[in-house]
Amino acid sequence: MNHLRRRFVLAAMLSLFAVLAAIVIGLNLLNYRDLMASTDKTISMIVDNGGTFPKPNELNNLIRGVASPGGASIEMPPPMSGDSDERGSRGGEAREFSPERFKEFSAETPYETRYFSVYIKDGQITELHMDNIATVTEEEARAYAEEILEDEDEDGFIGDGYAYRMTDSVIVFLNCEKRLDTFFSTLWISVIVSVAGLLVVLLLVVVSSKIVFRPVEESERKQKQFLTDASHELKTPLAIIEANTEVMELENGESKWTNSTKHQIKRLSGLVEQMVALTRLDEREPDGSAAMINLSHIVTDMVDTYQAPAEVAGKDIKLTVATDIKLHGNEKNIRQLIGILLDNAVKYAVVDTTIEVTLTAKGRRATLAFFNQAEGLAKGDNDVLFERFYRADSSRNSETGGTGIGLSVAKSIVEKSKGKITAYSEDGNSLRITVGLPI
User: Fold this and answer.
1) Best CA proximity match to 385, nearest among 369, 409, 366
2) Exposure check for the chain: N or C terminus, fewer CB within 10 A?
3) What is the mean pLDDT of residues 25-54?
4) For 17-31, 206-220, 416-430, which range has the lowest pLDDT when averaged over its residues?
């Protein structure tokens, strides 16, 4: 039940993490796109105006032109006094602007925008415009411009958060430090808030899962109690029936009826023992029950024990085992696991075939595999065989004395040992059961 609760909490937290990650990534991508779009519009305005921002009264005319259907047309003056030909300015040229360009600007924008321009001619720096920046010296401005001229990149970022754009006559540098600080602040705040929210939800899910799974735990407890009570209650009548049958044989001799009764008593006794074992496996092992054991020796010993029953059934067991594989576990449970899987293979393998048992180790994991030819299996995964009381072929199981609970016990032992067990049929006529155990 604790395993089921952990899986529930993990699934809930992974789902929440995926949603929060998508929100944080999407939000910050949109924020970054808006940052770059705003930066592009501002720097385009300065570049198109010859390296300076339009004067406040000119910008007011442009902003008011937003309301007019035809846009605004103004005459752009030279950005600075001097020879306009040397600077490549557009002084005196009437230029028409689309109203949509000025939706994000206001009359205060020129005072809020920090930038500087470097004028060039034939790849050489001719003049600097530094009136709208205070944190950059002329030497730093020249160094930035020379680096860009050397790299020949038309736009990008340079220095401490300066976006730039280069034309044939001017390089405009726009200070984006505050914008980038805002972007990264939003990014970190969104990440921190999401992580904090994830931790809070984790705490709530862990607490609430105890309440949610309480009815399931109660149901499982009652099921275990039922199996325990039923097992104990069945032992007494079975013992009485067996004793009565023996008395009848002493008085009247053996018959097919008494033999049939003893056979069914044996089957029911085996089922009761498996039910008790399954119930005990679901409970916590007492301290000291696990120790370092030699898996190679145990597998070899168990296979030797089953060689005779296999020969009687017309089958052979071939063992391939790596030497000296050790693990930390309960030897009694491991022996029971191997016995169940060997018994299953001997019972259901096709006559005159070989049962292959292999034990290998790789890294920190031991792999124990049982392969045999069989009938009536579905191709692919056959993990349904480990379900309690599952029987793939009722008539065949009746003949072999199967109870449909043995492989369930094997699965419980493997899970209790923190391992994994699988059943796979490649062609429907063979079965490979693989057990992985940590070593």
Assistant:
1) 409
2) N
3) 88
4) 206-220
